[in-house]
Task: structure prediction
Amino acid sequence: MRVPVLIALAALAVGTPDLALAQQMQWKTLTGLPTTVVGHRGFPGLMPDHTLEGYRRAIEAGAEFVEPDLVVTKDGVLIARHEPMLSQTTDVSERPEFASRKSTKKMDGADVTDWFASDFTLAEIKTLRAKQPLPERDASHNGKYLVPTFEEVIAMVKFEAGRTGRTVGIYPETKHPTFHAALGLPLEDRLLTALAAAGWTEKSSPVIIQSFETANLKYLRGKTNVRLVQLVDGGIDPNGVMMPRQPYDFVVIGDKRTYPDLVTKAGLAEIKTYADGVSPWKAYLIPTRQVDRNNDGRMDDLNGDNAMDERDRVLVGPTTVIQDAHAVGLFVHSWTFRNEAYRLAADFKDDPLAEYKLVYGMGLDGLFTDWPDAALKARQ
Ligand SMILES: [Ca+2]
Ligand SMILES: [Ca+2]
Ligand SMILES: [Ca+2]
Result:
């Protein structure tokens, strides 16, 4: 149960020690409230990404937000898919009637060959069925569920919020804004129209919009009061050094700044001019690196399974990104938290709850998880 920190303070001030209230005060988040749990693409640990059934499962598990990634159909309808490319998360490649629809497009500077949502009408999209993209996860729901429109996601979330009596939010991501604009199918005004129809136009609305690009967030800031979040992408080398990737809109205009530049104090101060929060990849908060403890000149296979993955990396953080963001008034959300042991640094000893507990202790304001139930269990 969430208790506003001011109430907790007042209760303690009048001498009514209450363990639950006292524990609330330990949250080092911007508001003093517990870390918000977001169902990343729904509940993809158990269900195919971006289906109404998956989002509903996340809400049933207690997630406070669900995350639809947004792309656009040929006839201009916002749908929820992780990418404009459809082959990873639907059965499109098995449909002979769509074989000729496969094409190569330039996306974020690279040639990509796939089936693109922008070449399909919504009616055609509705003939597809969702599938689980990761081979290590349960495929028993493949072929059952439809690709939802954004309007259907909003309606479902409102229904579930009413049914459960809880506030349930949506956390839409504008996918590849520059790519969609170049197709003549820009996302932003379509998104604002749908949110306005839902009555969600204010900072207090149960909506947070996120983007890996910067220019479209600045555009949105001039058009809406709903909360905006700057996503910060990354990759980290064996020595724990963050790679200098860039927002694609920076590439287009020749701005040399990188994602790591966005989480410096100067970068965070600029984000604060157009966004409410920042959402870096979790390695910006808790970096990891490989190690050569036996000094043989090669990075060690720490768990001895003849493969290198996260289990062969150790934590070298934490960084000051959360404190620096809080200092300028930005909340910090991060991603993606997952249960599979091979995705967890050696320090966590195959226990996903240990990772959650670490970032909760750091005052992280919110996180995206493929298993909302695990995040909430660790938060109790
Ligand atoms: Ca996303
Ligand atoms: Ca070694
Ligand atoms: Ca290993």
User: Anything to note?
Assistant: The two ends are 9 Å apart (CA to CA). Confidence is low (pLDDT under 50) at residues 1-17. Residues 200 and 207 are 7 Å apart (CA to CA).
